[in-house]
Amino acid sequence: MLSYRDPTDDSINTVKKAFSHGLGGHIPRGELWLGADLFKKANLEDDLEGRLTLIERLGQDLLCLPLSDDKSTNRVMGYRYFSLREVEVASKIRTFFLTVVVDGPFQRLTEKEGLMKILAGWKRERHEVAKEFEKERAEVELLIAQCLELSVDSVIIADDLAGEHSLMIDPHDIQNLFSPFYVQAVSEIHRKHSYALFHSCGDITMIIPHLLSYGFDGLAAIQHRSNDLVALKESYGAKLTFMAGIEPEILEATEISMSALKEYERLIRSLTPGGGFIISSCSGLYSGDFLQRVQELYRIADELFTN
Question: pTM above the 0.70 mark?
């Protein structure tokens, strides 16, 4: 099944319009994570060529490449990481808006040491955790700098700082330890004329003013259930671009219930006006079963946009 959107729309300019809070010919589409099972269901290889084919088939506008310098697969969600060499190849294909997803220092720490160990150490041995954070920070800054040399269009920094209902770390501690990295990274991203977005799972409403002060242009794969995106659009819609709109419950359901459909339509209608919106799941498309469902959700969104 081919994309529903007008194939003559220019993907790069459409996404740039979203960031400048204008409206293109369609709602731009993108996904941070595409799982291996999705490619299997689509009869494609999970490589750069397969990814380009799949996002074209889905009518997506962003080519998002999760990037890592030391591993090839996220074992939990089943999506692959890409290398700088693959980003370089992708940077020469100017059909899609090229985005890299880079794990932040805190995310890298928790993946190496375990979340509970880091949180426990944060209380007992904060100085040691801070030292390890700075080591990871240097690695992440280098990775971002290398991506920027390849003229990527945007960088998403992924740091899971929150649970479903609250932050895992005191906001003052985030401000004191993490903010120098975020400010520096965003400054470098902007200096290279790229966009900077932030991703965290869970409820991050308390730190959104801080993220704005660091200079982030948008929030990527942000959960409506935890953050009330309608309220966030009303508060920050002129300042932030939201990559959001598709919750895991509507992807995973055998059939879309009437209540879920109405909430999805309400969310799309609320996020679309004034631009600053890229339709995306907040969880990634990790299952092959999502292939048909996400196309159906795109179709509904496009109908709401044109009517």
Answer: yes
